Amino acid sequence: MTQYPSRWIEVAVNEIARLPGIGKKTALRLALHLLRQDKSITAELTNALTDLIEKTTYCKECGNIADGEKCDICKSHRRDRSLICVVEDMRDVMAIENTAQYNGLYHVLGGVISPLDGIGPEELGIESLIKRLKGPENEAKELIIALGSTLEGDTTTFYISKKVKALGVKVSTIARGVPVGGELEFTDEITLGRSILGRTDYHSE
Known about the structure:
The protein has about 200 residues and is α/β, with parallel strands linked by helices. Helices cover about 40% and strands about 15% of the residues. The longest helix is centred in the first third of the chain and has 17 residues. The protein is elongated, with a radius of gyration of 21 Å.
């Protein structure tokens, strides 16, 4: 068991180690690094984290991270509102935006259907997507489902395609340039961009 010279270092290490991908050794290294910095630098980090928690919210239209009621993408008049790209989470939005190959809107599900993990359709943003497509302000003519090439991603794609079938909206999926079993956020920008451009019609039957 690690012995710490100060209980406050131990508390800091334990809290930092709760972050994903960070073990106790890395947490200790970060804590000691912060301790050596000028207090103003640590204060800036503290303020940034406080602002992150208190001032960021989720777009009421697409579910992406936002600074207000709507995110910058949904507010933009330059986006093609006839396209809605359905993604698992906001990291996928950033990945697709970095390709500079897509100019439509998004809808963030907040996950994928995974019965083994206790995640069903009701835990995701699927109903809000249906409501959005049925809304009077909807201009979408095509739904691009851009989920990872996993069993859970394919299940979610199938479920959504069935739900929107009666709405008269074209459903397509990104081309399989994304490797089977792969996650969008880890796919290189060129491959992901080509997958968006080379999307194909989705047939649930």
